[in-house]
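Model it.
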Amino acid sequence: MIKSFLLLALLTAGILATSCGNRSQNASGDFSAIGDTSRNALDWEGTYYGVLPCADCEGIETVITIRYDETYIIKTKYLGKDDQVFDEKGTFTWNELGKIITLDQPIGQKYLVGEMQLFHLDQNGQRISGDLAEHYRLPMVTSDYLEETPERIELKDAEGAAGEKPNQ
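Modeled.
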């Protein structure tokens, strides 16, 4: 009787030990995190600015505004080429882990959402490493910051009512 009880207690403890945790298995067999993610734990709505590296220009000045209603505005200017500003508006989607957003235009660009910053990812959705890694980071900025210097992309038409933050 005591052996049966001990065996049952060990079996129960083993089941509890393997079932507790902050992960769940989806239908495809992959494990995914449950709990805090960039999507539900960070104040990510806002405007991000940086100059991304460019192979045939001085850099790509980039301004992205993302909103809680999962819309965005991205403005880019190829420095040292001309003053043309490319303006795209659209929607973005979150990956299953709630850490990466994918813009519907231009052609599925991906960004890792961090605390008050975005990281431009490579074509495979991976962080860029090496000497230029820091140049792929876009910190969150205010519109005042962007209007300090006349050469910077103007955001007057990008500003406006932000989407409402969803109830978490």
